[in-house]
């Protein structure tokens, strides 16, 4: 994801959008999603007016006073957190286990910034220690937004 390649753990908790832990996230291709923008409205619903103020330290990457801010939810612990929405390029490779099949770059992949605490109470072996992100649910492709 972004300008560096890494392997990530994928988890579907039935949430409304994709999120990742942005505390250590650093990418030159990351861009925040602005409040009231069509993408913010599609991500959080309503008028897209929920914004994050970036007062927390450390700041999320690309956070501004105009960053779209949905909440993330872990249904197992009933924990909510609020973070900014961003977009970046995701590099996806596929294989049948033996042979490389396809390679794709998805530009403008949209995700929310959450916190690792959202992963609490999941099965012990569900998450690789120090994993960089956990997906809740993928958004529709950008052409569907």
TrEMBL record:
<dbReference type="GO" id="GO:0006508">
    <property type="term" value="P:proteolysis"/>
</dbReference>
<dbReference type="InterPro" id="IPR021109">
    <property type="entry name" value="Peptidase_aspartic_dom_sf"/>
</dbReference>
<dbReference type="InterPro" id="IPR032861">
    <property type="entry name" value="TAXi_N"/>
</dbReference>
<feature type="domain" description="Xylanase inhibitor N-terminal">
    <location>
        <begin position="8"/>
        <end position="124"/>
    </location>
</feature>
<comment type="similarity">
    <text>Belongs to the peptidase A1 family.</text>
</comment>
<dbReference type="GO" id="GO:0004190">
    <property type="term" value="F:aspartic-type endopeptidase activity"/>
</dbReference>
<dbReference type="InterPro" id="IPR001461">
    <property type="entry name" value="Aspartic_peptidase_A1"/>
</dbReference>
<dbReference type="Pfam" id="PF14543">
    <property type="entry name" value="TAXi_N"/>
</dbReference>
<protein>
    <recommendedName>
        <fullName>Xylanase inhibitor N-terminal domain-containing protein</fullName>
    </recommendedName>
</protein>
């Amino acid at each position: 994801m972004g300008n560096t390649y890494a392997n990530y753990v994928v988890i579907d908790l039935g949430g409304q959008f994709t999120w990742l832990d942005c505390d250590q996230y650093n990418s030159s291709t990351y861009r925040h999603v602005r409040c009231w923008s069509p993408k913010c409205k599609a991500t959080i619903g309503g008028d897209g007016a929920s914004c994050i103020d970036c007062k927390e330290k450390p700041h999320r990457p690309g956070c501004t006073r105009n960053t779209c801010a949905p909440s993330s939810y872990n249904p197992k612990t009933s924990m909510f957190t609020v973070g900014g929405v961003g977009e970046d390029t995701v590099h996806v490779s596929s294989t049948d286990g033996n042979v490389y099949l396809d390679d794709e770059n998805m530009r403008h992949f949209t995700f929310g910034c959450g916190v690792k605490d959202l992963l609490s109470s999941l099965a012990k072996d569900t998450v690789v220690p120090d994993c960089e992100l956990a997906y809740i649910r993928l958004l529709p492709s950008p052409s569907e937004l």
